[in-house]
Amino acid sequence: MEAMKKKSEKNKERALKVLAIVASARKKGVVASLAAGVLKGAEEVGAETETINLYDYDLRYCRGCWACERKNRCVLDDDFGEIFEKVLEADILILAAPVYWSNVPGIMKTFFDRQCGLAVNHGEGKTVFGMRVPLGFNTEESVAGKKIVLVAACTAPWPFNILLDESRGALRAMKNYTRKIKGTIAGKIVYTDSRFENVKGKRKRYEKKAYTLGLRVARSGM
Ligand SMILES: Cc1cc2nc3c(=O)[nH]c(=O)nc-3n(C[C@H](O)[C@H](O)[C@H](O)COP(=O)(O)O)c2cc1C
Fold this sequence. Notes:
The chain is α/β, with parallel strands linked by helices. It has one domain: Rossmann fold. Helix content is 42%, strand content 20%. It has a five-stranded parallel sheet, sandwiched between helices. Strands 4-7 form a two-stranded antiparallel ribbon. A two-stranded antiparallel ribbon has the order 5-6. Helix 2 links the parallel strand 1 and strand 2. Bound molecules: flavin mononucleotide. The site of flavin mononucleotide has 17 residues, from helix 2.
């Protein structure tokens, strides 16, 4: 409670920070433009915004050494520390990923993996019927409580994006991350049938939707 109070007092002192994490190397692709649309809406109501395109950074695979749990930092020498600092500062995160093999692209998965021992810890576990059970993870207070906006794009048309687990697979991965960092999904945009991405001005319509979502989410986070 005290932590929440401190957090909201801190938020009153500064502009709302909205950070887009984009996992597509196509800078003019669908998810990059929809993430930009959400940011534009947030800027309209005074939020401070930034985009991290993961492909612009040196981001190595997690080695599973768990040194981060002991040292509270990752021992790999790359750009992850810089990215994670921005994640911690953000009030709202936009996770923007194209669907690759019914999941998020590897680079987004690496972004999640690298936070494992920093955003959450194994905690004490519980004793159930005399057995020690490592029940779930504890989320670090520094990362908890963010609003998350999900953006996904796939070539599968509706309803196959859902029935065949295409966009659903990628959304599930991003929702699991959100749950584990104790975030709240504030909205989502899924762009289907992207091979025919501009039929009847569909892209423009979705950019407008993204803008409206950005306005709404940022307003509610002020
Ligand atoms: C390696 C790779 C794997 C893909 N796998 C899928 C898939 O499993 N299902 C699907 O519907 N689309 C798949 N796609 C298509 C992309 O999701 C689609 O083109 C998306 O709109 C790309 O978004 P972007 O323009 O923001 O990069 C794949 C594309 C690539 C390059």
